[in-house]
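Entry for magnesium ion complex. Fields follow.
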Amino acid sequence: MHPIAEKRLRKGALPTIFCSGCGHGTVLNAFLRAVDPPEIFDSLALVGGIGCSGWTPVFVDTDAMHTLHGRALAVATGLKLAAPDRKVVVFTGDGDCMSIGGNHFMHAARRNIDMTVIMMNNRIYGMTGGQTAPTTPLDSRTQTSPYGNAEPDIDACRVAEACGATYIARWTSAHPRGITRAVREGLEHPGFAFIEVMVQCPTQAGRYMYGTADSARLLKMIKQAAVPKSRAQGMSEEEMAGRFAIGLLHRSDDRPELTRGLAELNQRAAGEGR
Ligand code: SF4
Ligand code: MG
């Protein structure tokens, strides 16, 4: 076992529930590299939603909460307000975050609350058996769309930006260094940081949507679809069809952060004797 894994994984919870060849393992690996320094690791508080990705915090040997479907951000918001010194990180899936959790996502981003959200996007409901998710591309075949998906997919990064997130990055499981860098930047960023990671799911998305459970082939497909942001900006909508931009997509410092805003409000209220 790698020394960082040896030091930071919760041994009693192993093996992970991830299928062989799943991209979630790469995300966990890249995350551990980012948070290994003790000054970061000792201040972490991890929250997971429901789905394969939601299990990720359970495998890290630190304070972790495994919550309800779609509610990870609601729990994480309460946690951050109660313990503003903790570095709160949420692990969520595309179904968990964009479907049942979409409303919580919208408002956490709007509030610009200081936390880092890692959304592992396999473009399908993996754990529950391969159903269509809001991120499933149009015309894709899944267990619930055997003749093709009639719905266009949602772009989570654009939703995050529209709602007010102040750090947004997208990487893939073929870019582990990019994930590590984004996690570090997200943790340092004093506001709502959203990191989308496109991951291969050989068991569900692979078999039904892409016609192969070969994780190496799926990883190659994801890598080929990823376009660095600087290049994507010069490409037309037609050229970008079926592709997505990767890298740091958005960063701003022009919105107030919720926990600091509330602390100031409390001070003002105390000063006015309320
Ligand atoms: Fe990974 Fe898919 Fe297996 Fe879930 S079902 S652990 S996303 S390969
Ligand atoms: Mg999913």
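NOTE: Residues 18-19, 22, 24, 52, 122, 126-127, 201-204 surround iron/sulfur cluster (ligand 1) (CB under 6 Å).
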